[in-house]
Design goal:
Length: 339
């Protein structure tokens, strides 16, 4: 009898352990368009994520040479929607590094104050203060030469919004070479686990995802001194080159655009056979276009790499909700990435 009970207990523990191993954690999405509206398909994605949270780009901040100051641009325009599938929003502010290379001309404390005030105005105007905002995220690819100014700005943000968590994105190289790039003075960072190549190099195959390169940069993730979440890529783009030099990124295109205007010359690269206009880019005959995407298998491998390199629990955030590539991933595909 005792033996049977023991076997039953062991089987129960194994079952519960198996259940936990396959338990799907809540995850979130970035919304990265200058117009905020949610079609039913995107609402369903958010609902399925179980997080009740959306990371929403609010505006960018750039350095204006003419005015010799940092100014907000490309503020997101909001469509009124009374049936939002989330109750928390994380405003995301993208800041160009040029703001901090010109820090001698910018009052960083005033910039932080203005940033918080603009966020609060947008929250009040567009969500009627019914949506919870506990975090503010700053996205900036700071460098060794700008870290002091950038970190000072982050500290000022905290001073002007003490009741919120201030978070910052970090790139893979900023995890590995933290002694040079520094560790930002924030409550948490978001590891942007993509864009690992040089898009200006027309000979590369895929700069969005490269797990061989990424693995080398994850070696020190276990010892990173503050908590982190992880952003995984579900997007694709076309990189346009002219005479071997990058001209621009094409984010909105379809198969018909490619077939009608380009000839395939390698696995992922096309050459324009006539002049055309796609996604705000004028394309000349002879221009080259490299299409980069995120294959499901490689994305799963990336998710496993990060999980194995981590010693803490973290939230997974997918970039981004409004990418057409999302439609090629089933709900099970996405949930399989966060187990």
């Amino acid at each position: 009898m005792v033996k049977k009970i023991t076997l039953f207990v062991l089987a129960s523990i194994a079952f519960i352990s198996c259940q936990r191993d396959h338990e799907v954690k809540p995850y979130s999405y970035y919304h990265w368009k200058t117009e905020f509206s949610l079609p039913q398909s995107e609402k369903k994605l958010i609902t399925n994520s179980l997080s009740e949270k959306l990371y929403l780009r609010f505006f960018d901040i750039v350095y204006n040479e003419k005015q010799q100051n940092a100014l907000p641009v490309a503020t997101t325009q909001f469509t009124k929607d009374t049936a939002l599938p989330f109750n928390k929003v994380v405003p995301v502010i993208f800041i160009r590094n040029s703001v901090f290379t010109n820090a001698s001309n910018v009052n960083l404390d005033q910039l932080a104050r203005n940033t918080i005030q603009k966020i609060d105005r947008l929250l009040s105007k567009n969500f009627n203060n019914t949506i919870i905002c506990e975090d503010i995220q700053i996205d900036c690819d700071w460098s060794q030469s700008t870290k002091t100014s950038f970190f000072s700005f982050l500290e000022s943000l905290k001073k002007h919004s003490p009741d919120r968590l201030i978070t910052s994105t970090v790139r893979l190289h900023q995890i590995k070479y933290r002694e040079k790039t520094g560790v930002p003075p924030v409550d948490k960072v978001i590891l942007m686990a993509y864009n690992v190549g040089d898009i200006s190099d027309s000979n590369q195959k895929n700069t969005i995802i490269n797990n061989t390169i990424t693995a080398k940069y994850l070696e020190r993730l276990k010892t990173y001194p503050i908590k982190y979440n992880v952003a995984l890529p579900i997007f694709e783009w076309g990189i346009l080159y002219r005479h071997g030099k990058i001209i621009g990124l094409i984010n909105q295109y379809n198969d018909q655009d490619i077939k009608a205007n380009f000839n395939l010359i390698s696995e992922t690269t096309y050459i324009a056979k006539n002049e055309t206009y796609i996604d705000g880019n004028f394309i000349y005959e002879g221009d080259k276009l490299r299409i980069e995407t995120v294959p499901k298998k490689q994305l799963k491998e990336l998710a496993i790499l990060i999980k194995e390199a981590s010693v803490i629990d973290y939230e997974t955030i997918f970039y981004h909700l409004t990418s057409p590539l999302i439609l090629k991933f089933s709900e099970d595909d996405i949930k399989d990435l966060v187990k």
